[in-house]
Amino acid sequence: MVKKKDHMEALLTDDKSSADTPRKELLKSRQKVEERDPSHPAWVNFNEEEEITIINELTYLRSSMIMTYIVVPILSVCTLFIFAIVLYWKTNLRSQFFYRVVYRLEDATHMLVKGNGDALEIIEIYSTNSAGTRDTF
Predict the structure, then answer these.
(1) Distances (CA, A) of 103 to 28, 96, 111, 123, 136
(2) Is 4 exposed, middle or buried, given 0-12, 13-18 or 19+ CB atoms closer than 10 A?
(3) Distance (Å, rounded) from C-alpha 72 to C-alpha 70?
(4) d(CA 87, CA 30)
């Protein structure tokens, strides 16, 4: 039987096509993890250098119709649309003005995903396509 390390080296040295490049990088990162700490799991499901791939906190959000259709447009017109530009670039402000926090998944329409550092992203829980509604999570 081929040892695990020999099998990995064979995969790394095999140059079949450039399509295998991400696979080779994953195997190299796996090998680095094994060399660094043998008790650490071999497969890593996130890239330590990317901030959004590590999820620190999930917050349930629900769309706020009054803020979305009344308050935000009035503030945007009064500030000559500078407020709209700021909302576009600042996810934390967007989450405060367009959504409200709920505590049950059944009530939520979106999720605020907080990663490492200042990484924030708002994701729909249910997205629709031509075939109907499908779950995002």
Answers:
(1) 41, 15, 11, 16, 19
(2) exposed
(3) 6
(4) 40
Q: How does pLDDT run across 85-98, given as a tens digit for each residue? A: 999 999 999 999 99
Asked if 97 and 87 touch (Cβ cutoff 8 Å), the reply is yes
- In the chain, where the domains are located: 4-36, 57-135
Which amino acid is located at 93 in the chain?
A: L
Share of the chain above pLDDT 90, in %: 41
Q: What angle do CA 10, 11, 12 make, to 5 degrees?
A: 90
If you average pLDDT over each of 33-42, 83-92, 106-115, which comes out highest? 83-92
Distance, CA of 135 to CA of 111 (rounded, Å)? 13
3-state secondary structure of 51: coil
Closest CA to 116 of 69, 59, 46: 46
Q: Which two tokens stand for residue 31?
A: 């090998």
Q: Which alpha helices (DSSP H) does 1-137 contain, by range?
A: 4-13, 21-36, 65-66, 72-78, 82-89, 91-98
| Nearest in space to 61 (alpha carbons), one of 115, 120, 125 | 125
